Amino acid sequence: MSEIFRVAIIGSGPAGKSAAGRAASLGMSHILLEKTDHLSDTIYKYQKGKHVMATPSQLVLRSDQEFEAGKREAILEKWNARTKELGVNVKFNAEAKAIRGTGPAIEGSVHVIEMRARDGTVTKKEIQRYAPPYEIELTNGEKIMAENVVFAIGTQGNPNRMRCPGGDLPHVQYQLDDPTEYVDEHIVVIGAGDAGIENARGLAEDSAQGNVVTVVSRGPEATSPKESFPTAKEANALALLGDRNAGKLNIRFETDTASVEPGWITFSTRDGEERVRCDRIIARIGSAPPRAFIEECGIAFTSADRLAFPQLSPVFESTAPGIFVIGALAGYPLIKHCMNQGYDVIEFINGNTELKPADEPILEAKFKDLPGRKSVAEWLDLLRENVTILNGMNPLQMREFMLDSDAKFYRKGDVIFERAAPGSSLFAIAQGSVAVQIDPNDTSKTVPIGQGSIFGEVGLISGRRRGATIVAAEDTICVEISRNAALKLQSQVPTAKKAIERISTERLLLQMFGSGLKPDDIAEVVQTSKIRQVKPGEAILKEGDEGNEIYVIRVGSMIVEKEIGGKPVFLSYLPAGSYVGEMALIAGGRRTATVKAAIKSEVIQIDGDAFKKVLEANPELLKRAKRDMASRQDINAFIEAKKDSFSGVVDMYSGVANFLVENGIGEATDVLLIDESLCVGCDNCEKACADSHDGLSRLDREAGRSYAHLHVPTSCRHCEHPHCMADCPPNAINRGPDGEVYINDTCIGCGNCQRNCPYGVIRMDKVPPKKPSLLSWLFFGFGPGPGEPSKKWAYANSDPGVEKPKKAIKCDMCAGIEGGPSCVRACPTGAAIRVAPDEFLTVARLEQEEA
């Protein structure tokens, strides 16, 4: 009988190599099976010169192998040398074909798997699990015996294939080894995850190669790099957009492949199909576990979904005793995680049952304030089982998910957040329930949300302030999911995305229309509604068109225009949470105005016939809808009546409104405007700003653009989804209780926020020495006087031996300073005002002009 190894490790990637290194260090009988003639095939196939990241940075590396960020070649060289030094028993060109338990059958462990052929036919097969030892049959016929088996094969060997006509042509490839091999080609990279981004940037890096590179992404372009590419690292997403802006490559959002033919590719876009020249396609559209092979080994998966992962215990053991799964195949793709798992699984097999995962201290800190003495593993199980959107995750995915989320305990009556408070996180109820206060004037009127559900989704989706006050109806445990974690969850767990979209649509409609509606009342409306992405300037309603659909603005903002005298006149600005289209449904007839996106937006398109049934069944809702309609009819009538006698004011207001939208007011929550007909140029606003902020003004009054008498100076707009937050390494940029976006003292001066801001309102500067008070200057002549000190004074009064680091500086709306923004308070003529766009951009301003 051949030797029975204590452990056989299949796959020599970061997880398998780390496991084998630990086994060798412990003197454990082991064998590392690698199907190629080299170690770490996935890293080996990275494109030449690729920089490999070592994230997450806060996670301690636990392995007998070293790893730190660096070039692919240097990392592989170190790993190969260390593997040899440790004396790892490696068998190359050893591909596992089958694994069979040779021990007794496990009672009650028969399960059914579905075998799907290339032609789409499905056959069912019963699998019986058997106990160890296991026989591993290789493709060359050789057999290896082992008491334990560790699967560390990843998923890259099973890439997702293009499923469109022509997707199997020779010029479609799923791997890029050396981008310098390709010259003067039109290359399309399908997929905008890390692999696709890195391949595209490598192909476009050297302009002398002459490649025309296009990246194709199904998702929409969002307000930040991370949201545009939710499955990619922020640094990669930011770099890709930088290359696009520099003209090195093209990015096509909201695009899919319709068909492929030699020399051409046909895209399916929002505007129809488009045929484009294409010499080569590199498809990096992810990969899936080799499910049939894994299931035939007796391992069950978490669900029937093709992208589901194996069922695993907290110590990585599968449903087949003695078979363990680690690394990307377990749903943990990051190299550091994989290496830690390799170390941990061997320690467990060796009898070290007390070993805690490397991320245990981080997670313990997150759960320490929750009631009840539960271990990290118990808390993770409770959250995963009790929260519907987390049901599809395995324990290892839950660990990674919770690194970016927080668990919080609220006593009965505690306010979780208040109406109009800023916030973009999502909350999930793991235990207990909450009450939504639907009437700000009567807190006794509430709607319950029970265990397993979510709330806060409106802030997550639109970036607007919270729509209602939420209090704990009983002692409650919630998971607060950060915006980035929620986006990642939706991209990785399809059931979570569907649940969040359905719940958010239902809640938004109930919150907007009120009138005692219940979920059952709008079930048909929710079921038939569609979520649409809308490009800037694209119209969802056109004046004169037919149709009875209603549109709810989910993300972004819209402007309403009416044609007067052959030209469009601005009527109003509609933020997220508004709705339009009810006039044609209630009163009949054609659309009376055009509604188009001020910025990239998202709307819920509601079937008019389904909504009409709700109106007919709910008289109070119909009455309210008619009031809203009457208000809009009054605006139309006002504009029509004044189009001759008042045309100058109408034209002026319309021009001002369009100017403000063009200058970013459409995504602002608070903006500084200056009425130049009142401004006397005293610069008191800048001086007051500097005196309130350590001598550094956040405002440049003269900079910025003007229209007529209205000026938009260089000052922060406090955007709904701030661009500056997209890539801040120390997370130094936050939103305060009054909606202000501010930068705290942890800023490291990297300049990412300055580069990301499209409005030029952030600058990098050294904090000057503290200057004497205004009274000291006034009575004794000490210091440079009010306002920002000159560079000469700052230099003369700085410590010559100390180089002050630069910090990011921007308007914080004078948070914490009594009386509010100092620029407004210091203006002697009232020229400076701070406004919310939905309050300022209204036809009511025309009525004031007339008065």
UniProtKB/TrEMBL annotation:
Domain of life: Bacteria
Keywords associated with the record: 4Fe-4S, Electron transport, Iron, Iron-sulfur, Metal-binding, Transport
InterPro entries with a match to the protein in the record: 4Fe4S_Fe-S-bd, 4Fe4S_Fe_S_CS, cNMP-bd_CS, cNMP-bd_dom, cNMP-bd_dom_sf, FAD/NAD-bd_sf, FAD/NAD-binding_dom, RmlC-like_jellyroll
Domain 4Fe-4S ferredoxin-type: 670-702, 739-767, 805-838
Pfam families in UniProt: cNMP_binding, Fer4_11, Pyr_redox_2
Residue ranges annotated for the Cyclic nucleotide-binding domain, each copy included: 389-489, 513-632
Gene3D superfamilies: 3.30.70.20, FAD/NAD(P)-binding domain (3.50.50.60), Jelly Rolls (2.60.120.10)
Keyword Lipid biosynthesis in record: no
UniProt keyword annotation of Oxidoreductase present: no
Protein's name according to its UniProt entry: Oxidoreductase
